[in-house]
Amino acid sequence: MRGGAWVWNRKDRRGMADEDQQQTQGAAAGTGMFENRLRKNAKRLRKWARAQGLTAFRVYDRDIPEYSYAVDLYGDHAHVVEYPRRKAHAKGGTTDTERAEVLAAVTAVLGVPTERISVKTHTPQPWGRSQYGRVGQGSERLVVEEQGLKFWVNLGDYLDTGLFMDHRNTRARVRTEAKGKQFLNLFAYTGAFTVYAAAGGAAGSVSVDLSNTYLDWAEDNLVLNGLADPRHVLIRADAKAWLEDQARHGEERFDLIVCDPPSFSTSKKMAGNFDVQRDHVRMLEHLQALLSPGGVLYFSTNYLGFELKDSATRGLEQVEELTPRSIPEDFHRKEIHRCWRMVAPSR
């Protein structure tokens, strides 16, 4: 009560005690529901992951609205991300209590001790992958396996781990199509797509990212898989500016391109900023200019409100949206990205 005081008689106190007991019972029931779902998912997905050659996969993806968490396994470590809800705790237990219960369930069901669980909170941003930011320092890197390849991940220093697992299906497509081709990875991040292209027998590749940290990480991933080679070039540059310059003045053409830009990006190292909705028409025009005849472009965005303009794909021979087929089986929520496969005309 604002500006006043509560006066409790015996009846008031008994009523509050009863309510507290009901809330505790409700929280316990909810925790049991979460634990049961986690156990059911883990039993099915661990078997599935072994068959797929995965040691990094999602075991819980906000399946139950009351428990808005994503739980991923990275080898013998767990990565837990909380997605805060505005109204989720208007009734019932506190957020701290719920979080403790969720972590206890992760330990009990998945067998991961607390010291090997990384916990983060996803704070919604108006634009972009907020996960790119650094949130810690000095966490030990781990190696995980994915479909016969290996990748370094860091569960503690960044909101993202270094491997976007939701793009696993598209990476597999790239490996299948890469043999003998020149490959471009724009907004390359830690180079997972480049590793897949190189493993698929790409004749050469160019990976472009503004961050030295991520390019070094990409090189480490190539080395880890025995794929480091002068034919696979890593370029530190503003991807948007680099693309514009290459489309206007460059002579190199690519048979296979992956472009997975952030929704919004700005940096002191950039000229201006990048907005995927505002800039995608011009960007796709430039990408078409870099495609060889019959070349393939995979374009993806995690901005779910994105609208692909007709003018952006004018001149392409084929445009196919792969969503939701591009999202792996271990992702319960299919609203994580959108993805297209675009094909240039064969002249």
Automatic annotation (TrEMBL):
Gene3D superfamilies: RNA methyltransferase domain (HRMD) like (3.30.750.80), Vaccinia Virus protein VP39 (3.40.50.150). The keyword Secreted does not apply. This is SAM-dependent methyltransferase. Residues 136-302 form the S-adenosylmethionine-dependent methyltransferase domain. Pfam families: Methyltrans_SAM. InterPro entries: SAM-dep_methyl-trfase, SAM-dependent_MTases_sf. Keywords: Methyltransferase, S-adenosyl-L-methionine, Transferase. GO terms for molecular function: methyltransferase activity. One of its GO terms (biological process) is methylation.
